[in-house]
Specification:
Elements (H helix, E strand, L loop, with lengths): L16 H11 L3 E3 L6 E3 L1 H19 L4 E2 L5 E3 H5 L2 H7 L4 E10 L5 E13 L4 H11 L8 E10 L13 E11 L2 H21 L5 E5 L11 E8 L5 E11 L1 H6 L2 E3 L5 E3 L1 E8 L1 H10 L16 E5 L7 H16 L2 E2 L2 E2 L2 E3 L6 H10 L3 E5 L1 H6 L1 E6 L7 E5 H6 L1 H22 L1 E3 L3 H7 L14 E5 L4 H11 L2 E6 L7 E2 L6 E2 L2 E5 L3
Parallel strand pairs: 3-7, 15-18, 15-19, 22-23
Antiparallel strand pairs: 1-2, 4-6, 5-6, 7-8, 8-14, 9-10, 9-24, 10-11, 11-14, 12-13, 16-17, 19-20, 20-21, 23-27, 24-27, 25-26
Helix pairs in contact: 2-6
């Protein structure tokens, strides 16, 4: 990675992390703010990354028996009234449609007309309207399980927004399942959490912790919420996915019933689970550097960019023929479940061209000039290394080792992120040490603090709320593998049954 003035991104991460993030999004040409407050336009490079995530996740879902469907973006207001606890959790974020047409006044101005008989809520999440469908689809135990996913957009009227991480409209998938027994519902809930963790680590190269949310952090209306949490480079946590066991709460509200094998009518057990485009934000903050985006190869929109050097008109044809031949060989290679994606950039923009692809995070870039053609070589740089670290590589070795090189980059990114999390995750004892752990060493950079604290908690909601009010720190999860180590709560000093993960979070 470059130093000082050679960095492509200004400010650097250690100077202003929030602004660095915004500049990486801009420099990589992934997204931009839209004219609608709090919403974003996802540009082709960012959307191609999302498409790759969708492709992988969709295949993972379907291998567990899940089928895709689609449900309306509008939810009748009365559906939300049926589930008071659920609605309360989203009430402040709901966008409501009250009219169905516009009228032109005599002065040429438009105004709403035609009030709706019943207001419609633009979906913040779809449990209520999908539950209504499930109540009609399910009548017998033979209809179960129902395993449905939809890829959609949702609207949550956020007050403070940031591209990908928190926007008023975002893309996601939401899975919804119905089961005959509690055990089956809980098994599905854990299955999807494990799937999300595998996707995050194996594809996004983001190491995650798995655990259960506290009642205060639980999804509104759920019996249990489980999550995966990643550590970003500013040591804050990012919730990367959630899986909810809803018990019979939504089944009762929506009337999802079935006749059991012995003829009894029972309420079903349901789950829901989802991830969103905030994963793109997590990827940026996990791997990006002071030169821009760094993409894990398994989800990168392009694995390799070839840049022919075409200044000499007499040798232009030979260079282009060589470049297109290399590109064809690369595109014939299989990388995991897809063909290698190769960009050929023949623009004559000098050094700016190379920096553009560095900022976009392409895993491997190669320059090809007349001298390279004569030597049957390419001049190669890897995005997981310093921008000036490049080598001349024989063509055959470049092509033949490409999938291995991409896997090396994938492993390097994961291991680096894992090492960072391990370095900044610490057991903490006592209130004084706990408060010091989350106190910024530099008041001008409040995001730089201890990281993840593994600390005892007495399970009191009052202590949880007090810590949140004092430090803006929340319990990110109760670890799945908590060993029940006894200790004293870092807030009140009362006995604790084990450690939980505290962190500041997005």
């Amino acid at each position: 990675m470059g130093k000082g003035p050679t960095n492509a991104i200004s400010p650097r991460r250690d100077e202003d992390y929030p602004e660095w993030y915004q500049q990486v999004v801009k420099a990589s040409d992934m997204a931009e703010n839209s004219p609608v407050r709090g919403c974003m336009v996802i540009k082709p490079w960012g959307y191609a990354l999302w498409e790759n995530m969708v492709r992988v996740l969709d295949g993972m879902f379907k291998r567990t028996g899940v089928k895709n469907a689609y449900f309306p973006v509008f939810i009748p207001f009365r559906f939300l009234q049926q589930e008071a606890e659920h609605v309360e959790g989203f009430a402040k974020e709901c966008a409501v449609v009250t009219h169905h047409r516009l009228e032109m006044g005599q002065d040429g101005t438009l105004s709403p007309a035609g009030p709706l008989a019943e207001p419609l809520v633009v979906r913040p999440t779809s449990e209520t309207i999908i539950g209504e469908s499930f109540s009609r689809w399910v009548s017998s135990y033979r209809d179960l399980p129902v395993l449905i996913n939809q890829w959609a957009n949702v609207v949550r009227w956020e007050m403070r927004t940031r591209l990908f991480l928190r926007t008023s409209e975002f893309l996601w998938q939401e899975g919804h399942t119905v089961h005959a027994t509690e055990a089956e519902g809980r098994e599905r809930t854990r299955m999807m959490l494990d799937l999300y963790a595998r996707f995050s680590e194996d594809y996004l190269a983001i190491p995650v912790l798995k655990g259960e949310k506290t009642p205060a952090e639980r999804f509104p209306g759920a019996v249990d919420t489980f999550c995966i949490e990643g550590m970003m480079q500013d040591r804050k946590a990012l919730q990367c996915g959630t899986s909810h066991f809803l018990g019979r709460n939504f089944a009762r509200a929506s009337g999802i019933k079935f006749q059991s094998p012995d003829g009894k009518e029972e309420y079903a057990w349901t789950t829901s689970w989802g991830v969103s485009t905030r994963l793109i934000g997590g990827l940026i903050m996990s791997h990006g550097d002071d030169d821009g985006l760094v993409l894990p190869p398994r989800v990168a929109p392009a694995h390799v960019v070839l840049m022919p050097m075409l200044k000499d008109p007499d040798k232009r044809g030979a260079v282009m023929d060589f470049t297109q031949s290399v590109a064809a060989e690369l595109r014939d290679l299989r990388y995991h479940d897809t063909n290698l994606a190769v960009e050929v950039d023949d623009r004559e923009t000098g050094g700016a061209r190379g920096w553009e692809w560095i900022k976009k995070g392409v895993p491997v870039r190669a320059e090809i000039g007349p001298r390279d053609v004569s030597r049957n070589c390419v001049y190669v740089g890897r995005r997981d290394r310093a921008s000036g670290d490049r080598d001349s590589v024989p063509r055959d070795r470049f092509v033949g080792s490409m999938t291995e090189v991409l896997d090396q980059i994938q492993r390097t990114l994961f291991e680096k992120a894992l090492g960072f999390r391990q370095t900044h995750t610490h057991p903490v004892e006592g209130k004084k040490a706990f408060y010091e752990f989350f106190t910024p060493q530099n008041v001008e950079k409040p995001e730089i603090h201890g990281g993840f604290a593994l600390a005892p908690w007495c399970e009191s909601p009052e202590c949880e709320a007090r810590i949140k009010d004092d430090l803006a720190v929340t319990i990110r999860l109760i670890p799945m593998d908590r060993d029940g180590e006894q200790g004293c709560c870092v807030s009140c000093g009362q006995p604790s049954r084990g450690r939980v993960v505290f962190a500041k979070a997005y």
